[in-house]
Amino acid sequence: MRQRCMTAAWMLLATALPALALAHGVTGRDASLVSALHGVNIAPFMYLGAKHMVTGYDHLAFLAGVIFLLYRLRDVVLYASVFALGHSITLLGAVLLGYRANPYIVDAIIGLSVVYKGFENIGGFANLRWRLDPRVAVAGFGLAHGLGLATKLQELQLSPDGLAANLVAFNAGVELGQLAALAAMVLVFMLWRRRRSFQSAIYPANVLLMCVGFVLAGYQLTGFLQH
User: Fold this and answer.
1) What is the pLDDT of residue 198?
2) Residue pair 97/153 in contact by the 8 Å Cβ criterion
3) Most confident among 3-7, 25-29, 208-212 (mean pLDDT)
4) Is residue 67 within 8 Å of residue 183, measured between CB atoms?
5) What is the predicted pLDDT for the residue at 154?
6) Residue 63 pLDDT class (50, 70, 90 cuts)
7) Mean of the pLDDT values across residues 157-161?
8) What percent of the chain has pLDDT over 90?
9) Cβ contacts of 95 within 8 Å, gap of 6 or more
10) pLDDT for 18
11) Which residue ranges make up each domain of the chain?
């Protein structure tokens, strides 16, 4: 049974590879729209932020790993909040202060954050005498996710006129998108946990999550080495 699940997981990963490789970007029509805006434009930036979150495979994979084994709603709220806090600090801070990090390295770290959660969910750190508090880890990786998004915004020619307000709107959109994604995930997990298959699927599902993270990290490191 486990072998069949693992085979299916690898097939799904191979199918999703092109989409995963494009995660975490602001391109095409959205990039042109944002670059052409001047002054305070709350609605477009909120829309872009929400769209980025609900289509950001790296964010969604990490969030799925975070809540995979959280059975209480208050725990979901707690972990989502610390992730949002970390995400907001680096998104707003890096853009407003002009801090620039290498986007390939940052996105590789984001991929490894997905690996970390998958490994943690299958008990990979259970035998260690000391391990990082999961809440601290989620907050720390939130900083990386926010910095990764900041690097993408910094690639655009954003007008300094109204920049602070637009960034706050963008971040608000990101958090609204995260809330919508979390609501859907929590519902799916609630329904899934009622089925007998859930316990037997924990291991292969989180191995798949780790594979997704390794693919994301490997793709970004390849880009770093080629530039």
Assistant:
1) 95
2) no
3) 208-212
4) no
5) 86
6) very high
7) 84
8) 62
9) 150, 153, 154, 158, 163, 167
10) 47
11) 38-226
Q: Which amino acid is at 31?
A: A
| Three-state SS annotation for the chain | CHHHHHHHHHHHHHHHHHHHHCCCCCCHHHHHHHHHCCCCCHHHHHHHHHHHHHHCHHHHHHHHHHHCCCCCHHHHHHHHHHHHHHHHHHHHHHHHHCCCCCHHHHHHHHHHHHHHHHHHHCCCCCCCCCCCCHHHHHHHHHHHHHHHHHHHHHCCCCCCCCHHHHHHHHHHHHHHHHHHHHHHHHHHHHHHHCCCHHHHHHHHHHHHHHHHHHHHHHHHHHHHHHC
Q: Which residue has the tokens 């490894």?
A: 112
Question: What is the reported pLDDT for 8?
Answer: 47
The set of residues, in sequence order, having a beta carbon less than 8 Å from that of 143 and lying 6+ positions away, is 86, 87, 89, 90
Tell me how far apart the alpha carbons of residues 80 and 140 are, in angstroms, rounded to a whole number.
12
CA 152 to chain centre: 14
Mean pLDDT of 129-156: 90
